[in-house]
Amino acid sequence: MQIKILLAIATSVLVVLFVGCGKHTTDVSSQPPEQVFNAVQFCQDFASAPPELKTLADNAWMSIQADALPGALKYLGKLEDNPALNAAQKRSVADLTGQIKRQMAKEAAAK
């Protein structure tokens, strides 16, 4: 009787092991997702900006993170038109605007 119980337990364990070791077909990439936008300098240039400029810069970056690229361009355009920008901020706005336009063109070409 004990042998039958042990045999049943061993068989159950083997079945569970073989079922659990099945090949999974989910495609999980070990690579981190590609960072499309590099806004480190942009964020640094606007970190200590006056509140009006900082708000526009923050809104632009939040739009980028939300993948609302046309909205981000709108905020960047408002920043670009602001005469209070210093040279570094102007370069950062132009750089980020270029990155967004390239990404939008790439997405449009992929469709």
Would you mind describing this structure in some detail?
The protein is mainly alpha-helical. It has a domain at 37-111. The protein contains 5 helices and no strands. The chain has helices at residues 2-20, 40-46, 51-65, 69-81, 87-110.
Give me some keywords for this one.
111 residues; mainly alpha; 70% helix
Average pLDDT score: 81
Structural class: mainly alpha
Taken in chain order, the helices and strands follow as: HHHHH
Number of beta strands: 0
- The amount of beta strand, in percent, is under 5%
- Measured distance between first and last alpha carbons: 68 Å
Please give the count of helices: 5
Stretches where pLDDT falls below 50 for ≥5 residues?
none
Largest sheet data: none
Name the helicity range. over 70%
| CA-based shape | elongated
Radius of gyration: 27 Å
